[in-house]
Amino acid sequence: MQCTNRFTIGITLGLSMIMLVLAAPGWSLDPDTSRSTAVRLTQGEFEEMTQTMGKAYGSPLVVPAAAFRSDGLNPDQLHYAVGLGILQGQDVENAYAVAPIYIPEGATISAVQASVFDGFNGPGACDGVGYEDVAVWLYRVSNSTSEALQMAFFTTTGVSGDIQHILETSVDYPTVAYPEYAYYAVARLCHSAHAFHTLQIFYSMD
Predict the structure, then answer these.
(1) What is the pTM of this model?
(2) Residue 185 exposed, middle or buried by CB count within 10 Å (0-12, 13-18, 19+)
């Protein structure tokens, strides 16, 4: 009798979770697009910054494109190019990829840098407002309330034949606090001419 009750409770909870997921709107995971304050670096500035930051803060966390996966809404619209080590979009507005971020407890994040490629010049599904650019977000999420708070935001500002290295030194909620929060990154790539290469997070330990 006891086993039967446990089985019934388990089935009920499982069905409840499935109904909650199905009831959630498809756009509920889309990050809000806000104004980017990040600056675009030249290749020389990017290389100099990497060496300087590396000396100052020990080892930055490098998150490669291979660490990202689709958010599940349009999984067929993201392509990982194994030979190039990049994540590419295809031709849909809401193609998002997500990756967990693991920074040591108590660390202070001082800068976040994204390397992306934006060769899209329309027309296509990416012509929607804000979708013509590659965008990257860094978030922390409360493990008790599920509230997600934006820490940093990057976006390209037009077409370029070169990889764009974008640096953000103004980071909100820079102190890593476990187990209260978990951390993750989001990349939006809506076209095959959009590519994500790497995300670097520079931090110091007090």
Answers:
(1) 0.73
(2) buried
Q: Over the chain, what is the mean pLDDT?
A: 81
Residues forming a β-bridge with 155? 135
Look at the alpha carbons of 147, 153, 159, 161 in this order and tell me if their dihedral is positive or negative. Answer: negative
Integer distance in angstroms from the first to the last C-alpha of the chain? 56
**What residue type is assigned to position 179 of the chain?**
P
CA distances from 97 to 78, 130, 181, 187 (A): 8, 17, 20, 5
Q: Are 165 and 43 spatial neighbours (Cβ–Cβ below 8 Å)?
A: yes
pLDDT single digits (tens) 32-71: 667 788 888 898 888 887 777 655 444 589 999 999 999 8
Contact yes or no for 192/109 (Cβ under 8 A): no
Strands 86-89 and 164-168 come out as unpaired
> In whole angstroms, what separates CA 97 from the centre of its chain?
7
SS3 at position 171: coil
Whether the CB-CB separation of 199 and 112 falls below 8 Å is answered with: yes
3-state class (DSSP) for residue 161: coil
C-alpha dihedral (10, 15, 148, 90), degrees to nearest 10: 130
